[in-house]
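pinned: reference chain
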Amino acid sequence: MQEKILVIGACGQIGTELTLALRQKYGNENVIASDIKEESPLFAGTGPFIKLDAMDAAAIRALVKREKITTIYLLAALLSVTGETNPALCWGLNMGALRQILDLGMAEKLKIFWPSSIAVFGATTPRENTPQKTIMEPTTMYGVTKYSGELLCQYYHKKFGLDVRSVRYPGLISWKSEPCGGTTDYAVEIFYEAIKMGKYTCFLSENTYLPMMYMDDAIRATLELMDVPLEKIKSRMSYNLSAISFSPKEIAEEIKKYIPNFKMSYAPDQRQAIADSWPASIDDSTARADWGWKHEYDLPKMVKVMLENLTEKLSK
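pinned: its structure tokens
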């Protein structure tokens, strides 16, 4: 049967690039992008786009039936920093949208992808090589919704047999799409400021290690997970996903290899407390064993590609 895909929240940091990758794989007309925001210029004109509220269950149901959707990627969410400014909205959107899609998935026999995050972990979680199964006591509303969402996904699979799949994304770094209010955004902002201004003031302290991933790896991991035969998916919470871990000081030193006069300074703000509650590195051996996950980008390779592409982008 021909795959027909709906991406909800397609104009965010992940959604823009995932939409393009899905269209390349399944054909432009078979991937419907949707968002409450205006269509992203990154994929405008490449396929169908519908303005859609992730909380409008009736509109989504009608679209799924009309277009004979087989798979939904639910990406709409309020992230960590934004979620702390409005916890009620964060809970309402992140959990409400997920529950509606799980119900719809059950009714229409859909396959669902829903992303979790390293925000599910907290200060009581082992910080180094955080295991797949461990203590989870998130300290942000975003993290609370992601942990609750994982449990909900697992429940719907065990109770109703719904095929819902998930990964815990680390901090994601891309030159194509802009950051969207996350605690790891410094690792994208630093490249813009290094190229434009030759300096950057980081909102985290210099030795704050966090798990990170180049966006190409994250998109590939998502597509690979969704292609895996059902019997290979052993975890129905969410898979740990990892590539690299580094500190602001380390990425600054790597950038200096290309921009020797780059100046880095530090002014930690409220985001430092969030970062301190998250893992410094992630053990994703379960994903590697279950469905063959393997990252391609280390820190030097990522920095080189980011600087090359952003320099060209910003010169236009």
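why pinned: Residues 173-212+244-283+297-314 form a domain with the UDP-galactose 4-epimerase; domain 1 fold (CATH 3.90.25). The chain has a mean pLDDT of 95.
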